[in-house]
Amino acid sequence: MVQELRPGDPRMIGPYRLRGRLGVGGMGQVFLGLSAEGRLVAMRVIRADLAADPQFLVRFRQEVAVARKVSGPFTAPVVDADTDGPVPWLATAYVAGPSLDDAVAERGPLPTWSVLKLAAGLAEGLSAIHAAGVLHRNLKPSNVLLAKYGPRMSDIGLSRASGPSALTHVGLPVGWPGFISPEQAEGREAGPQGDVFSLGAVLAFAATGEGPFGTGSRMALVYRVIHCPPDLDRVPAEVRPLVGRCLAKDPGLRPTAREVLTETSAARSMPALAAAVG
Q1: Nearest 5 degrees, angle CA 11-CA 12-CA 13?
Q2: Residues 148, 199: Cα–Cα separation, whole Å
Q3: I need a surface site. Which of 15, 86, 230, 272 has the fewest CB within 10 A?
Q4: For the chain, what is the largest distance between any 2 Cα atoms, rounded to a whole number of angstroms?
Q5: What's the Cα-to-Cα distance from 10 to each of 30, 46, 79, rounded to whole Å?
Q6: Distance (Å, whole) CA 53 – CA 225
């Protein structure tokens, strides 16, 4: 959802004129930008404290380079960036459509066929980025955009800008609590199967309106991800076994993204996701 710019917001970032606010991310604010040629982009503007951190900037440059490698029908590709200016920023293609987070908040959980359609699209996107040697590491409902012709993932690989298994100053992992894998929650290196765990959590959210590890403080959610089974009682029976396998604590017991895609391939012939979110 695009909101009006607030007093004090910049009006220009690089060559892009800002047209509104799209939200706030872990690294800073996100604006809707317009190029001189009329192209709309999502502008991620880095927070001042992070922009002043030399180590962060090194990682940010690396992650922008990684994100540029990824482009496909289920991603929001990088189109421009300034990693060396006084206000670092990243521009990705703007995807018209609500985030999964907003769609569920406005209309409630998705119907079962839409959850299967979502699973197929996200699994195809994850398969493509994993084949390119890239990890998402921060798949969550607000990073899933429900476009007209299928879901799009944003912020691919960019959670690594804070380190692949970085911890905050209070000893908690970087990432969205309740949607990161147990290995990432413990500060261990997370591979492609970590993204599959996040996929399972996103699908549970889409089907029920809540994450599979409930709500609460960041510390409580991290504890449940590591030690407690997910609550899948309200997940429809048609998708519950798949979601449960994705949420296995042991990465070796989870399916690959390609296996999830194979299992949900029949969903490709179903109506577009836009039909479920209006």
Answers
A1: 130
A2: 20
A3: 86
A4: 52
A5: 11, 13, 20
A6: 30
pLDDT over 90, % of the chain: 67
Taking only the tens place, the pLDDT of each residue in 183-216 is 999 988 889 999 999 999 999 999 999 999 999 9
pLDDT surpasses 80 at 135: yes
Question: Considering only CA atoms, which of 109, 125, 150 is closest in space to residue 272?
Answer: 150
> Distance between CA 136 and CA 198 in Å, rounded?
10
Amino acid at 139: L
Tell me: pLDDT of 252 over 90: yes
In the structure encoding, which two tokens stand for residue 171, read together? 């000893």
Structure tokens at 148: 């007209």
Other C-beta atoms closer than 10 Å to the C-beta of 139 total: 29
How many other C-beta atoms are found inside a 10 Å radius of the C-beta of residue 68?
Answer: 15
Q: Residue 201: CB partners within 8 Å, gap ≥ 6?
A: 140, 178, 179, 211, 212, 213, 230, 246, 247
Q: State mean pLDDT over 10-14.
A: 95
Return d(Cα 108, Cα 57) in angstroms, integer: 39
